[in-house]
Design goal:
By secondary structure, this protein is of the alpha+beta class. It folds into three domains: about 90 residues, no CATH class; about 140 residues, Cytidine Deaminase, domain 2 (3-Layer(aba) Sandwich); about 55 residues, no CATH class. It contains four helices and 15 strands. The strands form four sheets. Strands 9, 10, 11, 12, 13, 14 and 15 form a seven-stranded mixed sheet that branches. Strands 3-4-5-6 form a four-stranded antiparallel sheet, with no helix packed on it. α2 links the parallel β12 and β13. α3 runs antiparallel to α4.
Length: about 325
């Protein structure tokens, strides 16, 4: 069975179709109605306009027609910009906000390590995130949640039930030469966490490595070295895998805070539900409002107090 190609176009970074770089199989019958970013075309005002669900987008000027419904969450940007003015790197989901997409899980983990392992070493604390899967028009991509900042020997994170989580990842802070299990390998608790969640686990170590622990019901404890080009701690000495300094990169990458929790778990789902009628967003809001109430009623600790959230929402301690 042959597949008919109805439309093909190349685009400039902001979505304007390049001249003489595409075709339409038909100008009338079965005309393909979708284009840049997989969004539906709407050419009533002009050629190159797209319906991004939350608002309309003009690819000719790289701006939305109306302000961002979530503009209070992105106060550093103009409310009309597309993908934070960085369309080569970022994708603007439904006209609401930007996010990085990667072709493989390892690429997403590597980006997390490159951005946060230097912070982890310099600040002497661990960072944790979850890797989730994104299906964009039938193509699978991966990204990671904004990391949580922990302490020198543990960190916590939440598994969001509205995303398809595929693995977990964390850093191990600076080189402390722990006698029990070492800083440059998985701790017994790391492996236990992975097995309990039925998820593979990545750790970015002070020596500059990315290790993968394969969750295995047979308890084979399979660990693989994925790469060795992360920022590394000079205190590692001869065990250091590279000479990439943790002190040169910027240290202002975002981390997950209580205010972020309120934005992402309450205000954003509410805005999505209100503006585009997203049923999943409404469910997400119901999940998270209940958890937030319990979180704060227990004194700011999801493991204390009388509130007990669902198993997959419990913070995991490394």
């Amino acid at each position: 069975m042959k597949t008919a190609i109805l439309s093909s176009h190349d685009y400039e970074p902001y979505g304007s179709a390049l001249p003489y770089r595409g075709f339409e199989a038909s100008k009338t019958e079965n005309k393909y109605q979708f284009g840049f970013n997989g969004m539906e075309k709407d050419n009533e005002v002009g050629e190159g306009d797209y319906d991004f669900d939350a608002r309309m987008y003009n690819s000719r000027i790289g701006r939305f027609f109306t302000i961002d419904p979530l503009t209070m969450m992105f106060s550093s940007f103009s409310p009309y910009v597309f993908a934070a003015n960085c369309p080569i790197k970022l994708v603007d989901w439904h006209g609401l906000g930007p996010g990085d997409l990667f072709n493989t899980i390892e690429m997403a983990v590597g980006d997390f390590g490159l951005n946060y392992n230097d912070n982890s070493i310099v600040n002497g604390v661990e960072y944790a995130t979850t890797i989730y899967q994104v299906n964009q028009n039938g193509v699978i991509y991966y990204s990671y949640l904004q990391p949580n900042k922990g302490t020198k020997d543990h960190c916590n994170f939440l598994l969001d039930p509205t995303y398809k989580t595929v693995s977990i990842a964390h850093t191990h802070g600076q080189f402390l030469n722990y006698p029990r299990h070492g800083d440059d390998m998985f701790s017994p608790k790391d492996k236990e966490t992975s097995d309990n969640l039925n998820l593979n686990n990545y750790v970015i170590t002070p020596d500059g490595s990315v290790l993968l622990y394969i969750h295995d019901t047979k308890k084979n404890n399979l660990v693989y070295l994925i790469r060795s080009d992360m920022p590394s701690d000079p205190n590692e000495g001869k065990n250091r895998k590279n000479t990439i300094s943790p002190f040169l990169g910027k240290k202002d990458e975002p981390i997950y805070t209580f205010s972020d929790m309120a934005k992402d778990w309450i205000f954003k789902p509410l805005a999505i539900s209100s503006y585009i009628g997203n049923k999943d967003a409404t469910i997400k809001l119901d999940f998270k409002v209940n958890f937030i109430i319990g979180f704060f009623s227990s004194g700011g600790s999801s493991s204390g107090g009388s509130y007990s959230p669902p198993t997959k929402l419990n913070p995991v301690i490394f």
